[in-house]
Amino acid sequence: MPPTLLDPFLHWLGGTPCFRVYGKSRRERDWRIVAVYANHRRDWDGRWPLLAGCCTTWAADVIAIGWDFALGLLREQAAVPASRSNPVAVAGGRLGDSQRRAAADVSCGPGCSEVMAHECGHTWQAIRMGAIYLPLVGSVTLFGEGPHPRNRFENEASEQGLFGGLVNGSVCAPLMRQLTSLP
């Protein structure tokens, strides 16, 4: 199915986004707005094994996450906001490589903002690959990052993705209520 037909279907299926973000790759000049949809099946305690705790880029402008991840990202952005002039990138170019992250002077694992930068890298791949993005990248994404050819797309997403922050006024009311009700 061509992306021009798939994208409206994914937006219809997702309903109202929990928020929108600015995303791009290092190779792109202009920022794009990406709709981020949340559902409880993707929460860490979700009952669907392949979806629990999982973020997925479905198209060039559609990312799916869990509500718990959405709240975590919102908390991070409230504390240290990213912007298009100060975007978040994956430290060391890898989410899970502790040596590369240490070389980049980062001692902890990736936060929600870095994971969102990685997903923004996937949105760039979706633009480049068009209709073959989902079958090609989706078939190898469970392998994650690493040194093998099958890890190419995950490595590239971490190396190239930039997260430019939340689009002002785009956070949905239920998520905003959760953020304001926390101590």
Biggest β-sheet strands, sense, barrel: 6 strands, mixed
State Rg. 16 Å
Q: Globular, elongated, flat, extended or rod-shaped: what is the shape? A: globular
Mean pLDDT: 89
Q: SSE string, helix = H, strand = E?
A: HEEEEHEHHHHEH
Count the DSSP helices.
Answer: 7
Number of domains: 1
**How many strands in all?**
6
Measured distance between first and last alpha carbons: 46 Å
Give the low-pLDDT segments: none
| Helix percentage range | 40-55%
- Cross-sheet strand order for the largest sheet: 3-4-2-1-6-5
SS content category: alpha+beta
User: What is the strand content?
Assistant: 15-25%
Task: Put the structure in a nutshell.
The protein is α+β, with helices and mostly antiparallel strands and 183 residues long.
Please provide a written account of the structure.
The chain is of the alpha+beta class and 183 residues long. The mean pLDDT is 89. The termini are far apart. It has a 6-stranded mixed beta sheet with strand order 3-4-2-1-6-5. Strand 3 and strand 4 form a beta hairpin. It is built from 7 helices and 6 strands, in the order H-E-E-E-E-H-E-H-H-H-H-E-H.
